[in-house]
Amino acid sequence: MSYLDAVRLHFSGQFQADPSTVNNVPQYYDNEHFEKQYQQRPQGLWNPEGSGAWRLVDCRVTRVCYADGTSATDPRVDPVVGMRIMDANTRVSGKLVDLDPQQQMVSQIWGMIVRLSDGTTDYFSGPFEPAAFSDLWQRAMVAGRPRQQPLGAFYQSVLAPVAWSGDAGSRFLAELRAAATGGMLSIKFNVDGYDTNFISPQFTLGRITGTIGPAYADEPHHFVLGRHLGGTDSHMNFMPCVVDTQAKTLTCDFGNAIATTTPGGPLMNIGDMAVGWVDPASQRFMQIGVVAYRDTGWYESTAGVQVFPLTDAMISAIANLSVVAAINRQPILTENVDGVYVRADQFVYRLSPGEPAEVQLYATQYGELQDGAQIVVTYDPSQLQGLPEGDPPVAVPQDGVTGYDPKTPITATGGRAVLTLTAATFEKPPRAYIDGQVYGIRPLPQAVFAGAPGAWTDPADFISILVWNPYAVTGEPTWYGGIDEIFTQYGNLYPLMDRVVDLTSYQSVAAHADILSFAFSLPVSDPNSMPVTRDLSPAKREVILRWLKNRGQDGLPLQGTLPAEPAAAPAAETVDVAAAAEAPVAAKTPAVAPEIAGNALFLIKSGLEPQE
Q1: pTM score, whole prediction
Q2: Whether residues 209 and 234 fall in one domain
Q3: DSSP letter string over 462-517?
Q4: Chain centroid offset of residue 315 CA
Q5: Which residues of the chain register pLDDT less than 50?
């Protein structure tokens, strides 16, 4: 059941995502043609000096739900209502991290801690397992304030291991702790209404609503093992449901599925909405229950989750028929053909040359794990961002990731399968000044791949992979000899660092060698890990650490020999992104898909983290 378990809490508030936007433009990675104007508005787009932080802002529990199906919205009934859902208070904030400048549609949150607190006691807390957003769509139907993003998406992950401290006399906390037998909690939250207007008091803030419940060891961490509905109506988006035959309930999550009037505004009144099924004989819509999405405060107090009671007849009817979401009794969202669904749990990978990734795939039919399901895995770069003229090509060479063949389906055992993908070793850098190459790999039920009538595909249900270039240094690494190129690129793309250290200068970097060595040594799961973008390959990290720790007679990292000046090259044409900086962002919203600028060194030395 994951976060859709009967025992769950809902919360609502705001989030902050404070990215640097300089690295939104792939051509800015070219050190030779980088210009200082790219670090300022408008060429550096709307937030060139962002800190990279991801924070929860004034998020409070709006409802708690109990095992017997009842709930409470009053703190006098249960003291958890009104408590805060918070991030860390003893370390820096989490970070929002893109996979690559040409794959900004799977931005992950790294290094976040989630706590339930009354301001004195943390009743539970745990690290958020890094996760990428999914199901990005244009949620708002009309414009809001200037440069307020119309897009919406969701994150789903687990908190593990969870630390508990008391129960405040709360029935809910007692039930949640008893249900979380695996030491994990499941969390899912919707994000929308993000503000990129730098003169707005809401700059870098957006709306968040979410749900937390128990997580179970046999379930995926990043999606619901249940029934998945899709369609093409512009007013509704993909959504999951879970049938519990013992409790006789259908639990549906509309949290990222219903359009809003404005960005971060009220849900749009799109008519009488209900869930049910279509009788195959009469083709009539058979109603299970009405969605209360038009009730005042419904979205904030439920995060879009609603439970519908089921009769024995209803359970029997939908056992082998699609669950349907209908508007004015007209089906809008349905399960896929024959109720089949395939999804990778973890769907973002960073691989060194020759490194394998074991991708866990799940196959279901009408919400149940499907033994013997045939899964077709195919090359699909359609969700990568490589179309603008002048950008490096993406997903070439096509054989940069191996281990799949669309002509040979994978057979799921007990509804599960392992897809082993392996990164190639490139003979030459595919994208010159950008490290490695990005790829899209899509697993599909065989019937969907074959284009069976009624089949649909969720664009977000695919696997994104960054394959790094080989990197090695003969002998001892020196600043002039490769280290300078790496540091200069980060210095160009993340100008916030200039307040602490000039990454383009040997003297400045050498003066900060000790703290840089500490930051580069941290695991990537640590919010102080440098760089927070996670786009530095392990091979380059190892060489950088060797350089930082191997000191010369002057006690500083080796500088090496300044190379001779090359012949002057023709001036590069200035990249004109001013128009893009002023226009609405359609391909990505910084609320759910920004790059990160800040890094551990700045956060450690600046002391800019807010105090609780």
Answers
A1: 0.92
A2: no
A3: SEEEEEPPP---SSS--TBTTHHHHHHHHHHH-GGGGGT--TT-HHHHHHTHHHHH
A4: 34
A5: 572-612
